[in-house]
Amino acid sequence: MTLLALYHSESPAKCNEFSFVLSAVGLESEVVDYDNRFYLVIEEQHAAEAYQHLKAYVAENTEKEVIDEPLRPLSTGFAGAYLYGLILLMIGALKSTNAFNLYWQSNGLAHSVKIMQGEWWRTITALGLHADAAHLAGNIGFGALFGILVSQYIGSGAAWFTILIAGALGNGLNAYLYQTIHLSIGASTMVFAALGILGVFALSDRHAYTQRGMRRWVPFFATFALLGFIGAGGERTDIMAHLSGYLCGCLSGVAWMYVLSRDDVTIPAQSTFAALTIGLVGLAWSLAL
Prior knowledge:
With 289 residues, the chain is mostly helical. Helices cover 62% and strands 8% of the residues. It folds into two domains: 3-59, Hypothetical protein rpa1041 (Alpha-Beta Plaits); 78-288, Rhomboid-like fold. It contains twelve helices and five strands. The strands form two sheets. Strands 1-3-2 form a three-stranded antiparallel β-sheet. A hairpin with a 2-residue loop joins strand 2 (30-34) and strand 3. The longest helix has 23 residues, at 156-178.
């Protein structure tokens, strides 16, 4: 059973009020204390109906309240992070052992000329290849951390689908910018895409609107500073790929903000996003090999 958060607050009063409203129309909900905030949660299958009832209730009252679209599930996001790490480890093992006598590295790396010639799948397969164990471990650690944080905003399935797409777009943009033969591997483009998404989400969080002037931009600047700190070290570092990933992540975050602001958009379930993510990775590798 998946629970979605319809509303959250620092005090339980408004959550309890909204829960009473839902019970009046026959919808069961629950108020839970999670991470020093109170959440009004409801089963996913009733979330859309409950949201409409609360929206109508708020509209009929003089007090202006902001309630979230039922997208964010009450979860830690660890499941998606575990799967992310497992997939990278599996691809690393297959490549290092030359499994099935397939040329995993040469067929999967991001080759700028071949990408521009139409081999789009390389933008995805390159994200799973790494030069050595340290490279792999770093991308698993930072990627899992940023992925968990993004999951707090849009849910685990939607988060990892968006991170994958933004990372692939980052590799595509990197290939376009070089215009000559350039080879790259690693999930770092996807890791920095997640960092860009996180920066936009932190900036757009409605609680940030209580901040004035430059203070409101602090979370975004923090992610940009982190980009420079962990993304520009070592002679083998592909700085352009990191910047491309971060830029595509920021644009993906802006796109999500637009989608979440509209009432006429139906957002797929988290399980649908998860299936699309795994399916896209599988399709890319099947085309590469």
